[in-house]
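C-alpha cells please, single chain.
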Amino acid sequence: MAGFPLIQRRQLWVPTLAGWLVLIVCGLAMAATARYTVYPFLAPNAPAAGARLLVVEGWLDAEELDQAIAAYRRGGYQQIVTTGGPVERRLGFTTNTDYAELAAGYLQSHGLAGVPITAIPAPASAQNRTFLSAVMVRNWMAKQDQQHQAFDLFSGGAHARRSRLLYRLAFDSEIEIGILAAQPSNYDPQRWWQTSSGAKAVLGESISWLWTVGFFRPPPPGSHPRMSTSPSQLKAAECQRPPMPTLPTRLSCASRRRRGIPGCCRASRP
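Here you go.
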C-alpha cells in the first residue's frame, strides 16, 4: 500500500478564539446594518424625468392601488397601463379574468373614470411573469402612434427593484424607466423583521433579486418567452362561457335538438 496511499496529512488553518469573536461581531454588525438598509434598497422611488405614462402592476392589492391613484394625480401623467396575467385558480374555481383587467376596473371605479386606462394582460406563465408583462407592454408601445421616451413603473414594496430590472432587460435601454414603490399594507417596512409576512417578503425578494442579477438571461430579441401553462388555465382560456346544465343521458337526439343542445349523443339505457 506504500505506492497507493489512501490518506494524507494536510495543514488546516482555523480562527483562534479571538478570531471567532471578531467574525461574530462583524457578522452581527452586517446583519444590523442590513436590517435597516435592505428594504430601502429593494423599494426605491426614482421617477423618470418627463414620464407621462404610468404602468401599474395589476397584482397589487386595493390599498396599494389606492397609492397608485394618488401617484397618478400628483405625477402629471396622461395615461395608465395595467399589467398582469390570469388570476390563479382558488378553492377549486377557475376564473376567466386577469390581473390587468381587475386593476384597470378598480382604478376606473375609484376616481379615475375619465383617465385613459389600457389593460395589457399577459399569457399564463409559471415563471418570469414580470418579464413577460414587460414584453407585452413593449409590444403594445411599438404599435402606438405616440412614442414614449420615458415611463414610470408602479410596483409593490420590496418587489420594485426587481420589477424595474426586468423591465429594463425587456426594453433594452430603449426607454428611460422610473420606479415607484407602494408602501406594503400587511407589514411595517421600517420593522419588516418583526412580522412573518414582512420577513418572508423582504428575504424572498432579496433572494429573487440576487438570482435575477446572477442567473436570469432574457430571450433573444424577437423570440417569445417560454411559457408553462397548466391544463386548468388552458381550459379556462378556451371555454369563455359557462357550461351547459347537465341533463339526463336518457334524452334522445330529437329531444336534445329541441332543447338546443349541440351535438347528438347516443342515449344510454336508464
